Amino acid sequence: MPVRVLVRVLVRVLVRVLGRVLVRLSAGGAAPTLRDVFATNSPPMQHLSPNDAHTLLGGEPDALFIDCRSEMEYLFVGHPRGAHNVPWNDGPDWEVNPHFVQAVKKLAGQVSARPVVLICRSGNRSSAAARALEGAGFTTVYYIQHGFEGDLDAQRHRNTINGWRHEGLPWEQY
Fold it and tell me: What pTM was computed for the model?
């Protein structure tokens, strides 16, 4: 894990832990146990640039990389090398996939502490998917800002401003 990301996570956790301890003590109660503090204070979903995500994935062998775009996007537009495809929503109705969380749990080996990095086209679906994973108990969830294809430019084209592919990071296409 890059030092900058690790420091950011640790600072957030420490601030929350100390805040809970001080609130409990100032109210005249006993100090909470570490179990109490950490049970409700996992770090919130984190946003990573494509380059920071690539660095994290390279340095964190347990991290699970999920491309939550549709199967057609994954296959025909291309996808980051090493990413597993678990669609957040897919055709023909584009409903949210009711099996998304269970599919990620299966890939994670039922280990909710395993870091999960999510990517989609531009960052919207992966943000929603990250919230769902956090709600299901995953404790370390990242989503990649600007996604695989990035934001639209003035001519409404992608891959020209930002995103995984624009940054020249490894990807493949079938």
Answer: 0.74
CB-side neighbour CA atoms (13 Å) of 27: 10
Q: What is the DSSP string of 110-173?
A: T-TTS-EEEE-SSSHHHHHHHHHHHHTT-S-EEEETTTTT----TTS-SSSSSSTTTTT--EE-
Q: What is the DSSP code (8-state) at residue 88?
A: S
**Fold type of domain 43-172:** Oxidized Rhodanese; domain 1 (3.40.250)
In 3D space, the residue among 166, 125, 115, 146 whose CA is nearest the CA of residue 48 turns out to be 146
Dump pLDDT digits (tens) for 154-173.
Answer: 999 998 899 999 999 999 99
Single-letter code of the amino acid located at 54: H
Return d(Cα 165, Cα 78) in angstroms, integer: 9
Q: Are 149 and 121 in contact (CB under 8 A)?
A: yes
pLDDT digit string, tens, across residues 106-163: 999 988 889 999 999 988 899 999 999 999 999 999 999 999 999 999 999 998 899 9
Domain ranges of the chain: 1-41, 43-172
